[in-house]
Amino acid sequence: MASGFRSTTATGRRLFLKSALASALPLTMAASSVAKAQVARRTYVLVHGAWHGGWCWKPVRERLEAQGHRVLTPTLTGLADRSHLLSDRIVLQTHIDDIVNLYRWEDLTNVVLVGHSYGGWPVSGALESVHDRTAAVVFVDAFVPENGQAGRDLTSPGIRKILDESLAKGEIARPAPDASVFNLANAKDVPWLNERMTPQPNGVAVAPIQLRGGREKVARKIYVRGTRYANASFDGYLARAQQTSGWQAHALDCGHHVMLDQSEQLTAILTEA
Known about the structure:
By secondary structure, the protein is an alpha/beta fold. The protein has helices at residues 2-40, 58-66, 92-106, 120-130, 151-154, 157-168, 189-196, 232-243, 258-261, 263-272, and strands at 43-47, 70-72, 111-116, 134-140, 173-174, 200-201, 220-226, 247-252.
């Protein structure tokens, strides 16, 4: 009787332990998944181009957020939802400060910093101050200026003419062109952009940028080109990225607004960054 009792108790103990382990396993796996998700979660700062605002990143922002990432899409001073701040005091340094202050007040580190078109200017300038908080920088059909260059120097002849005429009149901003010039893949995006674009402050294109190598200190640098949009400067940046150590290059079959024409593919590039 005693022997049988001990056997039954031992068997029960083994069954209990097996059951407890089985119950704990899903919890352990769940905890592991949460830990991995926390490790994989990144912070993205997406900076828009001329005449735009943070709104233009919506398709990419939603895709990144759906993956659990933190995404900030600031609007630069004087544009879009901050167009009420438009003044003759806005210069390139103002937009550089917009980005640097975002890093500071949001306590950002290990950031994937992204600039589209004109956004390449303030992004490059901001990296003088925040390169140590930036894991990767991505230029999306954007300018990658060198020290001493000014926005007016690199604009296309047509846009330069409009800028010069506006400056000659003493205007503080120039109106946006019709969105059709960006060679969008989807015609319905043209009126959507036209309804939202606001005048671009002229002051940001005049003063030369001051760079001391902050951009080059970022470990990963990526250039993404929308090949259906004609721009000799952007073609040059793509070619240089393809040939320069520390850079990655992507040529996508789309217009200037890669975040609209190729939002899924751009999101994939950003998550790999």
